[in-house]
Design goal:
- α6 links the parallel β2 and β3.
- It is built from ten helices and seven strands.
- With 276 residues, it is an alpha/beta fold.
- It has two domains: 216 residues, Vaccinia Virus protein VP39 (Rossmann fold, 3-Layer(aba) Sandwich), CATH 3.40.50; 40 residues.
Length: 276
C-alpha cells in the first residue's frame, strides 16, 4: 500500500471527499485521540497552556487538547479542504492555512508548547523541483524554536519511511537548537509501533515541567552522541586542522543545512603563491 505523501502533495491529496471521509471515520478518530493523549502525556505541561497544533487537519487532535487540562490552542494546516471541514465542527481553537515547510508565522515566544500528529513526515518529501526537504525541515524547526517560549516543548507523532528520514528530522531539530530525542511505543510490534519526537527548547522553568518519559522505551540517541563526539574531536584537534580540511568541513556543514555550496575540486583550499 502506497504512503499518502508518495501519491500527491497534502493540499491535493486531502481534497473535499478525502477530508470528509478522514474526519467521519470512527477508526481514524479513535487513533487520533489515542496518539494525541499520548503526546500530551509526554509534553507534561500545566493546565491552561497555549498550544500550537501543527498539521491540525479538521481539528480531531484539537478537540482532545481542549478537553485535557483546558488548554487553548491554535492549529495550522496546508489543506484548505481539511480546514473547511474543521470550520463546520464546533471547535474551540483557531485554524490557519499555512505550509509548515515555509515556517511558523508567529512572533517569538508565543506558545508554551507545540504538538503534531501524523504530519511532519510530509516535510521529507519533495513534491516539486524547488522543494528541498532539508531546507524545509530547517526552516520549520528554526521558526518553531523561535515561536516557543524558553523551555517550551514539542512532541510530534510521525510515520517515518525509513531510518534516513528519522536521522534527517533529528539532525535538523538539533541544528535548530532543540534538545531531546525519539520515543518509540511498542517497538517490537510492526502494526502498533509509534514514533514520537520529543524536544525541548532550553531548560524547563520548573522541575515539574520536565518531559514525562516514565515507562517509555527510548531509542538510543546515536545521532546526538555522534555529534557530541565529533564536536569534542574538532575542539581537540582544532590547532592541528589545516586550511583545506577547515574549508571542506565548513562546506559540508553548509550542505547539511541546505545551503548552496560550490563543488569540490583540486583547487579547493589550495594555497596561492604570493604575487609581487
Amino acid at each position: 500500500m502506497s504512503r499518502p505523501e508518495e501519491l500527491a502533495p497534502p493540499e491535493i491529496f486531502y481534497n473535499d471527499s478525502e477530508s470528509k471521509k478522514y474526519t467521519d471515520s470512527t477508526r481514524v478518530q479513535h487513533i487520533q485521540a489515542k496518539m494525541t493523549l499520548r503526546a500530551l502525556e509526554l509534553l507534561n505541561i500545566p493546565d491552561n497552556s497555549f498550544i500550537l497544533d501543527i498539521g491540525c487537519g479538521s481539528g480531531l487532535s484539537g478537540e482532545i487538547i481542549s478537553e485535557e487540562g483546558g488548554h487553548m490552542w491554535c492549529g495550522l494546516d496546508i489543506s484548505p479542504s481539511m480546514l473547511a471541514t474543521g470550520l463546520t465542527r464546533d471547535l474551540e481553537g483557531d485554524l490557519m492555512l499555512q505550509d509548515m515547510g515555509i515556517g511558523i508565522p508567529f512572533r517569538a515566544g508565543t506558545f508554551d508548547a507545540a504538538i503534531s500528529i501524523s504530519a511532519i513526515q510530509w516535510l521529507c518529501n519533495a513534491d516539486t523541483s524547488y522543494n528541498d526537504p532539508k531546507r524545509r525541515l530547517m526552516r520549520f524547526f528554526n521558526t518553531l524554536f523561535a515561536a516557543l517560549k524558553k523551555g517550551g516543548k514539542f512532541v510530534a507523532q510521525f510515520y517515518p519511511k525509513n531510518d534516513d528520514q528519522v536521522d534527517q528530522i533529528l539532525q535538523a531539530a538539533k541544528v535548530a537548537g532543540f534538545n531531546g530525542g525519539l520515543v518509540i511505543d511498542d517497538p517490537e510490534s510492526k502494526k502498533n509501533k509509534k514514533f514520537y519526537l520529543v524536544l525541548t527548547s532550553g531548560s524547563p522553568r520548573t522541575q515539574d515541567e520536565q518531559v514525562n518519559l516514565q515507562g517509555v522505551t527510548m531509542d538510543a540517541d546515536e545521532l546526538g552522541e555522534k555529534m557530541t563526539n565529533h564536536a569534542r574531536r574538532a575542539r581537540k584537534g582544532k590547532e592541528m586542522e589545516s586550511g583545506k580540511s577547515f574549508i571542506n568541513r565548513k562546506k559540508e556543514l553548509m550542505r547539511r543545512r541546505g545551503r548552496k555550496v560550490a563543488k569540490d575540486s583540486k583547487f579547493t583550499g589550495r594555497k596561492r603563491r604570493p604575487r609581487f
